[in-house]
Design goal:
This protein has about 200 residues and is mainly α. The protein folds into 2 domains: about 15-90, Rna Polymerase Sigma Factor, Chain: A (Orthogonal Bundle), CATH 1.10.1740; about 105-140 and about 155-199, Arc Repressor Mutant, subunit A, CATH 1.10.10. The chain has 7 helices and no strands.
Length: about 200
């Protein structure tokens, strides 16, 4: 595992107890979602972790600039911008591990299926442009609304709709290609097994 050397820590303004409790609650509620979103967009685990940490520090530093009720959008907007900067230090890689902590109550077979599904999702998403993956991930996977995505990415609502439409089309096409490739490999394995049995 690569060790991340963080940039010098941001100077965080002193905050009152209520503000601190508010941001701690936001951290607890959203830090895994922010990290997971950055991973799905294509950033390495280390880059996603570093960007997530920096995004929360920036949000706390700028808490006075954040409109009440728009903290989540501000946080994701900051995280995506920071991740693009951090990515200069970390290369984009594919998902090779579970995006969420495994549920210990789930069977090994179910975990294997979930891991396979995550890997297939990653393969499909890697075939889309980064701008499309970002909008698709925020809308379809993380459940943000189009107006929230427009605010997060600082783009017009019409651009969100256009990117989402193109992302869905690209996703369907890429998913179909992956499905056909999987069928081809499976049928090839069956043909190989039949040939071995006949010899």
């Amino acid at each position: 595992m690569m060790v991340v050397v963080a940039e010098p820590a941001l100077a965080v303004k002193p905050v009152d107890a209520a503000t601190r409790a508010h941001w701690e609650a936001l951290y607890i509620a959203h830090h895994q979602v922010v990290w997971r979103t950055l991973r799905r967009i294509g950033f390495s685990p280390d880059a996603a972790a570093e960007a997530t940490q920096q995004a929360f520090l920036i949000c706390v530093q700028r808490f006075e600039d954040v409109r009440p009720g728009s903290e989540r959008a501000f946080l994701f907007s900051t995280a995506i911008r920071v991740a693009k900067t951090v990515a200069r230090k970390h290369r984009r890689i594919s998902l090779e591990e579970e995006l969420e902590h495994p549920d210990l109550g789930v069977s090994a077979e179910a975990l294997d299926r979930r891991e396979l599904a995550v890997k297939i999702l990653d393969r499909v998403l890697r075939q889309l442009d980064e701008d499309l993956v970002t909008v698709f991930t925020l809308f379809e996977i993380e459940g943000f609304s189009s107006p929230e995505i427009a605010e997060i990415l600082d783009i017009p609502l019409g651009t969100v709709a256009s990117r989402l439409r193109r992302a869905r089309e690209g996703f369907r096409k890429a998913a179909r290609a992956v499905e056909l490739e999987g069928r081809g490999k499976a049928s090839g394995a069956v043909r190989l097994q039949v040939a071995r049995n006949e010899s």
